[in-house]
Give the backbone structure.
Amino acid sequence: MWKFILGAVAALAAVFGVQQSGMLQDEAAETRSQGATSTNDADGWIGDAEALRAHMQFLSDDLLEGREAGSRGYDVAALYAANYFASLGLKPAGDEGSYWQNVPLLKITRDAAGAQMALIRDGRRQQLTYAEDFIVTSSSAHEESDVTAPMVFVGWGVEAPEFGVNSYENIDVEGKIVVLFGGGPPQLPAEERAHFGSGATKAALAASKGAVGMISIYTPAFEQIYSFERLAALSDRSGMTWISPDGEAHAAHPEIRASAVMAPEATQQLFDGADAAYADLRNAAAAGDAMPSFDLLGEATLAQRTRHQQVSSPNVAAMLEGGDPDLKDEYVVYTAHLDHDGYGPEVDGDNLYNGAVDNASGSSVVLDIARAFVEAEKKPRRSVIFLLVTAEEKGLRGAGYFAHHPTAPIENIVANINSDGVMMFFDFADVLAFGDTHSTIKAHLTKIADLMGLGVMADPYPEQGFFTRSDHYRFVQQGVPSVFMLLGFTATDGTNAGEQAFQTYLGQHYHKPSDDLAQPFDYVAGAKFVEFQYRLGESIANADERPEWNEGDFFGDLFGR
C-alpha cells in the first residue's frame, strides 16, 4: 500500500516538475535580467540554488493546501520529503524501518458557545462578553469543564529564586484561580525570561501549587508580541498536542479546570476593591519592579467546551550512517518543520496560508543539506539524522514527540541544528544562531563562519524569546545542545538588508496568506546558507568531543544530562 502511494507521489512530483520546468527557467532568466546573482555565479556553493527553488516551489504550491498537520496537504508534503530522502539512498530513521514516525495527536477546537466568564461579588454576578472581554482557552484535558473559585493575583506566576523572583512565596493558591501577567519578568535574561514566561511552564507550576483555574492578563510588552485582538481573531483555530503511548494528552494539566485570557480594557474589573489597580501593576511590570501577590475580592466563574478529535501526522526521518565505528552510534540531528497553517482568516480575498518562508524554506534547506552530505567525498564520523517534523505551528508538537520518543537514543543525540523561517532575500555577510551562547557549539559556529568570511551576530530581539519558539527547544528540554539558525542582518554590500527584510516579513507576511513565492527569494543566498549549515554539522560530526553545555549555563543546569 505504502509503496503504491510513494510511487504515486513520485509520479505527481515528477509531473509537477515537468510542468514547472519551463516556468523555472523563465523565472531564472527574468531574475538574472533584473541584476540578481545567478546560480552560475554562486562561487561553487555546496548548496544547490535550483534544487532549493524546486523544493520550495512544490512545498509552497496551492496543491498542498498550506500543509496543516493532519491534513491531506501535509501528507503529500511528507510523502514528497520521504521520497526525496529515499532517492538519495539515505536509510529510513522512522518507525519499523520506515521514513515515518507517526505522531498521534489530539486536535482541540474551542466551542465558543460553551465559553463563559463571570465575576461574583457580594452576591452579584457580572457576566463578561466573550471575544470582547475575554477568551477562554481550549483544553486538552477536558472536553467540557467549569470552575467557580476565589481569585488570587500572583504577579508573573513565576518561581525563579535564582533570579530573585518567586510569585508563589507566602501566598496560598490551593483551590483558587490564579491571575497572572503574560510573559516573563523583564529583569531576567532574555532567554531565561522566555522559558519562565511560557504558558506551558506557568500552567505546570500553577497546577503543582494547587490552582484550579488561570486568567492571564496583559503587560504593555506582551501586547506588542501577541495582542488580544489577534488572539480573538484566531480563537476558532484548532490546537493540538501529542498523545503518549499510555493514551494521555501531553502537558494536559487536568488540575486546571479552565483558563482564560483577559482583554486589557476589561482587566481592571478583576482588581476592583483590591490592594492595587491594574494600571499601576502594568506600570510596575513594565519597569521591572518587584511584583506583589495578593488575594482579589470575590470569585470568578470560568467555563469552557472543547471538541476533541484524535488525528495523526508523521514526522519524516532519514539517516546517513557515520563512518567511524566508535562514533557512528552518536547523531547530529538537522530539523525543520514541514507544516504550516492550512486555511485561515481571509486577507485580501485569500485564505490559503502557503507558508513559503514558514517553513517551506527551512524544510528545503534540510533536504538540500541531506543531498550535500550524500554527495560528499567522505562520510562524517558521526551519523546524521535529517528530521522534518509536524505540528510545529501547534506548539512544537512533532519535535516534542520525537524528543520524548526518539528513534535513536536521546543520550546519543549530540546536537540539533534547526532551520525555521529562512528569509533568503539577500546575500548575507553574517549569520544568526539563537542558542549559540549556551554550549560549545559556538566554537564550531565561529570556526565555520571564519572559514566562509562571515560574521556571527548576537540575538537582535532578545525580548521576543526566539530561543524557546522553534523545534530545537524541545531538544534543549531533553538536554541536547541546540541552535536555531537564520541569516544575519548584514548584507555583503554593507547595508542592513537583513533587518529590513526581517521587519517587512514579520509585519506584512508572517502567518498570513501572502507568505508565498511572490516574495523576492534569492536562491543563491539560500545555497550559501545550506553550505554554512552543512559545514557546521560536518564539524560537529567529525569532532573528537561531542558538544557540551557551558559550565554554569542555566539551560544546561536545568535540562542537561
The chain has a mean pLDDT of 91. Residues 2-33 form the longest helix (32 residues). The CA atoms of residues 213 and 503 lie 37 Å apart.
